[in-house]
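Board notes (copied after class):
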Amino acid sequence: MSGYQSVFRRVEVKFLLTAAQYRALIPVLEQHMAPDDFFKSTISNLYYDTPDFQLVRTSLEKPKYKEKLRLRCYRTPLEDSQSFVEIKKKVDGVVYKRRADLPYGQALEYLAGEGPGGDSQIFQELDWFLRFYGNLSPAMFLSYNRVSLRGRQDKNLRMTFDRDILWRADHLDLSEGAWGQDLLHPGERLLEIKIPNAMPLWLAGALSELSIFPTSFSKYGAAYQTLLRQKLTEMRMKQYA
């Protein structure tokens, strides 16, 4: 993947769609949207956090400012496969993302404090992030199949549909492939609309007509909450065993 974008600033609005809503929306999108350069992809992520999950717990409190760190690949990686180290920040509803690429094996060493990164401004930000939190390590695996669209007229309008969202809290190595527990119900898709400013009227109208409403949904946050519920259930079962 060459010529990748390394800096983003945009508003991201999320929606959970049923299979029926997704099918009904497609004819509308075909008039206004087109496949982007990476139309279909499988994305795998390692989210880094402190031992007590400070980053995701803070995010779930919905503060005006929150941030996360992840390692992303667009296929099951080998040692020398391209990967992206990303900082994602959200400030008053606006998303800022910085990312730099490294071979997968080197990225793991860098994030573990065992190898070099780079000398760019983005790596300086990553270095500061790692020093500030001090004890970050892989905390959650998340993968999904994505369809990406771009506006035919407005090239800054992007829409992504994620399905087959899988998570796991062990075997935290992207090279082990995409497997884990389902995060969504069968047929559901997570729609993300990525816009620099206001949503187009045609899109707002279509979403309203199909009763598709914005939702506050974080893949990492939802997986973490599911993990907590499972651990609580296990504790209760042990008490009554």
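Comment from the instructor: The first strand starts at residue 7 and ends at 17. The mean pLDDT is 94.
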